[in-house]
Amino acid sequence: MHEQQRRPVAELDDVGGNAVDRHPALVRRPVDVQPGGSLRRAVAVAQGGRVFWHAAVYPVAQMRIAIDIDSTLHHYWDLFALLARRRFGVALAYDEQVTWDIVQLRREQVAALVAESHRPEHVLGAAPYEGAVETVAGWHADGHFIHVTSHRSTAAHESTAAWLQRIGLPYDDLHCSWDKVTRCSELDIDVLIDDSPQNILRAQEAGIVPATIAHPWNRELCHEEGVICATDWRDLGDQLAPLLAARLRAR
Fold first, then answer.
1. Which of 6, 44, 115, 173 is the most buried (most CB within 10 A)?
2. What is the set of domains in the chain, with CATH numbers?
C-alpha cells in the first residue's frame, strides 16, 4: 500500500448528471491521476438510481506545476558519482559534467547506476535542497496543483512517496515514468521544473513554461528566451512569483 492511500478517506458529493466541482471555473477535463496529500473530496455521479465512481475528477488549481525530483528537489549528483566510483572505478566531477550524456560510462553502466541510486535506502536518505519544501508548500497553500514527476521506475514509487511524506512536501499527484512531458500535457501542466535539457526544450515546444535549477549540463539553456533558470530554490520562487501571482489575481 502506498503512503498516500493511508490518508483520510475523501468525502463524497452525490450529484446528478455531469460530475463537477462546486465552482465551474475550477474544473477541467477528468484525468486519471492518483491523489497525493491535498485531496479532501471525491465525486460520485448518480444516474438512474445507481452511483458511479467518476474515473478521477480533481479541483483544478490556479496554476498547475510539475516538479522533477533528482537534481531538482535534491542534489542527486554526489550519490551518482559515489556509486560510479565504487562500482566502476570512474571519477565523475560535477563541475565538469557540461553535457547531459555521461561519456565516461557506457549506456548500460549508466542504467545500472541509476537503478541502484533509486533503491529505497538511497531514495529515503536524500536531503532536499534548502528552500525546496518551503517554496513548494507555499505554492500548494495558495491553491496551486503540484504534480511530482520523475524518470524513476514504477518500482520506486512507494519509496518516493514515503520520502515526500518524510520531508513534508505536499503534492497532488506523483508519477514515475519515462515520458514526463506527455504526462504533463495530459494534466494541462502550466510550469515544468526539471534539470534535463531535453525536457526543458520539449516542455517549451508543448507550450509549458520551463524552469530549472542551474547545473553545468543545462546552464547553456539559461540564455534561451522563455526558460526560467535559478541558482537555488529561493531564487526560483522569486522568479516564478510574478507568474503565479498573475494567476491568483485572475481568480
1. 173
2. 3-53 (no CATH), 64-75+125-249 (3.40.50.1000)
